[in-house]
Amino acid sequence: MCGINSMKLGPPIEVFAVNKAYLDDTHPDKVNLSIGAYRTDEGKPWVLPVVRKTELQLANDETLNHEYLPVLGLEAFSSAATSMLLGADHSAILEGRAFGVQTLSGTGALRVGAEFLARQLGYKTFYFSQPTWENHRLVFLNSGFTEPREYRYWDANNRTLDLNGFLEDLQGAPENSVIILHACAHNPTGCDPTHEQWEKIAQVIEEKKLFPFFDSAYQGFASGELEKDAWAVRYFASRGLEMVCAQSFAKNFGLYNERVGNITVILKDKQDLIPVKSQLTLTVRGMYSNPPNHGGRIVATVLNNPQLYDEKESIRTMANRILSMRSGLKERLQRLGTPGTWDHITSQIGMFSYTGLSPRQVEHLVNNYHIYLLKSGRINMCGISTKNIDYVAKAINETVL
Ligand code: PMP
Asked: What remark does the entry add (predicted)?
């Protein structure tokens, strides 16, 4: 027991602290490259047109009400989310071995999946990439896992994937370790394995009897193509591996604060589906009883309506804006003759770029240029626009020189 008045101050959550420092700064040229949210070229948050249209349609639908959803959420949502992830014609779906559970965004999906594995099945050890999204460790520990471990991922010298280190760490992992894998657009490095590298990773996971837990927070948002960004998950599932995948609809639908997520569970044997679903029902029941309706209904309406689905073009708009900011930034740094190589800015994928800037250089950018980014050198490419790209490039150039 610890008395409330002897409680120690918890450490700040870096990304929120940096975001607040940006908001509090009154400098006219300030730039926010910290928090992971999409911004338009005007630096504004964006409600996707198809989302706005669907919201208006739902608001006018007198048949809808605010009754509780079932514990596992809207079936129309979770099955559409599972199909979006695996492809509707994936053998795991056709054979009745895959299903989804609506969750509180991607974080909630990770939490439900982790708690199910730890408390219902007794898994203890989890591996996350070095580096990874800062919340993986906390979510898994709070879910009942007791053995946090890292696998090598990022080769800082060459700014690429450390495949050998990654495979060696998997080889040395004890049987039944859960391996957290970023489905695409790895956060924070923006560096994904190639198809051949994924094949090697899957091979070791299978041989060593490890349990793959995918985290898919950026499907479609990374390349602009839902199918392309789901390649790794679909490949693992096609090998017949038992696995789970947490899905977030925060980025690809711009529904950050509506907390729309899904956990897809893929089993080897169809007969396990009903008992697994019943145990997951108890996991959710004891955690938050049932999920909210608004965002799940929007996504379900869009995904289940071919005409609206086609209007989801906005995903491509977002991905393309990021790609053009990546090439624009690299081009400018090269033109300025900024020391170092900058090819990684365009070879990395998704929202983030791991710039390679040191903590001292980051401090310099914050203090002298009012450009806010994480200590690790991670920047959110969406914070760059046609209006501030020259300023950002010059600031990085002056900082590195
Ligand atoms: N996983 C990763 C890798 C992420 O980057 C994020 C969002 N920052 C999430 C999961 C979960 O986000 P949310 O809970 O907002 O869906």
From this structure: In eukaryotes there are cytoplasmic, mitochondrial and chloroplastic isozymes.
User: Per-residue pLDDT for 308 more than 90?
Assistant: no
> Of 236, 235, 220, 211, which Cα lies nearest the Cα of 184?
220
Q: Is 250 in the pocket of ligand 1 (CB under 6 A)?
A: yes
Centroid of ligand 1 to alpha carbon of 107 (angstroms): 6
Residue 342: active-site member? no
Structure tokens at 33: 């490259």
Q: What is the pTM of this model?
A: 0.96
Q: Which amino acid is at 240?
A: G
Of 226, 316, 255, whose CA–CA distance to 102 is shortest?
A: 255
3-state helix, strand, coil in the chain (%, to 5): 45, 15, 40
Other CB atoms closer than 10 Å to residue 350's CB: what's the count? 27
**Per-residue pLDDT tens digits for 188-199:** 999 999 999 999
Angle at 156 between CA 158 and CA 382, to 5 degrees: 100
First to last CA, the chain: 53
Q: Is the CB of 133 under 6 A from ligand 1?
A: yes
Is 25 an active-site residue?
no
Cα 222 to Cα 103: distance, rounded to the nearest angstrom: 22
pLDDT in tens, 139-178: 999 999 999 999 999 999 888 999 999 999 999 999 999 9
Please give the full DSSP string across 185-244, using - where no structure is assigned.
Answer: S-TTT-----HHHHHHHHHHHHHTT-EEEEEES-TTTTTS-HHHHTHHHHHHHHTT--EE
Q: Is the CB of 187 under 6 A from ligand 1?
A: yes
Which ranges constitute the DSSP H helices of 120-207?
136-142, 163-171, 195-207
Asked if residue 101 lies in contact with residue 115, where contact means CB atoms within 8 angstroms, the answer is no
Quote ipTM for the complex: 0.99
The answer, yes or no, to whether any atom of ligand 1 lies below 6 A from the CB of 248, is yes
The answer to whether the peptide bond before residue 188 is cis (omega within 30 degrees of 0) is yes
- Whether 133 is catalytic is yes
CA–CA separation, 335 and 67 (whole Å) = 59
